[in-house]
Amino acid sequence: MTVAKAYAALSATTGLEPITIDRREPGAHDVEIDIEFCGLCHSDVHSVRGEWGNTHWPLVPGHEIVGTVARVGAEVSEFKTGDAVGVGVMVDSCRECESCQEGFEQYCEVGMVGTYGAVDKRNDDSITQGGYSSSVVVDENYVLRIPEGLDKAAAAPLLCAGITTYSPLRYFGVEEGDAVGVVGLGGLGHMAVKLAKAMGAEVTVFTTSPSKAEAARALGADRVVVSKDSEQMKAARNSLNLIIDTVAADHDINTYLKTLKRDGALVQLGLPEHAMPPIDPGQLIRRRLAYGGSMIGGIEETQEMLDFCAEHGVVSDIEMVDGEGINEAYRRLVAGDVRYRFVLDTATL
């Protein structure tokens, strides 16, 4: 065992505080990583506050991890000491089901092993602890290469926000000339804009806040539609091939379906806490529309995303946070007061 510094929640009401945790010695196929940066994701807040249930305490959150390889196991061949690497939302899966075999480990039919708060069945049923820490040990099959040229801190949110938006854009074959809509301009939304533009799409951002129009255009949006303005929404009808919906609050999908062309699709990425208004099936039927969902990406696709971002110069817009500022960052994250992702500098632990 090695000892790592970390920030953890000891209960649902205590917030995050500094502790030390044990990390296992690297096995034959393990990679030990000295963590340098870790993104703060809104799902971290839900987990720390016990809002998703089944929480194991203490809990060290963080699944947008970037660092440097410190040691490798005897049978590791793809990584070596000193390599820049990353770890995303999962650190294992069954590796045998149809989804895993096809490279969709995020949809593992047994259940993927999350980077934190999950039972690690391959390692004595220990509970995984995440990236708000100085080090981590991960099986080589779930470690990613950080390409040269990517700023490490700004690349950290790519391991969640980046792949979550990249995967549906790739699945629906977005290419030059396509018209893509993005609902919401937060951590996910701003990545969807950047990635869709890098793929050559014409991008429309839907927002409830007219004040965000300038920011959306600065990110590359070609058009901004204030969704509360009925005339603007009417003008946007039948104009889009694909909509990426990143909003995690309950909202009416039907208004956005009207902006899709025939054979268009709306993909839900945000997970609202409350039930959404029902979808009018007539809208789907009359123009052969599709409504679906998507969750992160497999390891191979996540590496593809990182390489794509390096090629096109795409990273997240970030604000750095030190260890003592994590709880304040959580407060601001819930309030939507960040453009667009917080990243923890683990040197401050």
Any overview of this molecule?
- It is a single chain.
- This protein is of the alpha/beta class and 349 residues long.
- The chain folds into two domains: 2-160 and 316-348, Medium-chain alcohol dehydrogenases, catalytic domain (Quinone Oxidoreductase, Chain A, domain 1, Alpha-Beta Complex); 162-293, Rossmann fold (3-Layer(aba) Sandwich), CATH 3.40.50.720.
- It contains eleven helices and 19 strands.
- It has helices at 42-48, 98-101, 152-155, 161-171, 187-198, 213-219, 230-235, 254-257, 281-286, 299-312, 326-335, and strands spanning 2-9, 16-23, 30-40, 65-72, 84-87, 90-92, 113-114, 119-120, 126-127, 135-139, 144-145, 179-183, 202-207, 223-226, 240-245, 260-268, 290-293, 318-321, 341-345.
- Strands 3, 4, 5, 10, 11, 18 and 19 form a seven-stranded mixed sheet that branches. A six-stranded parallel sheet has the order 14-13-12-15-16-17, with helices on one face.
- α6 links the parallel β13 (202-207) and β14 (223-226).
- α4 packs across α10 (299-312).
- The longest helix has 14 residues, at 299-312.
- The protein is globular.
- The two termini are 19 Å apart.
- The model has no long low-confidence stretch (mean pLDDT 97).
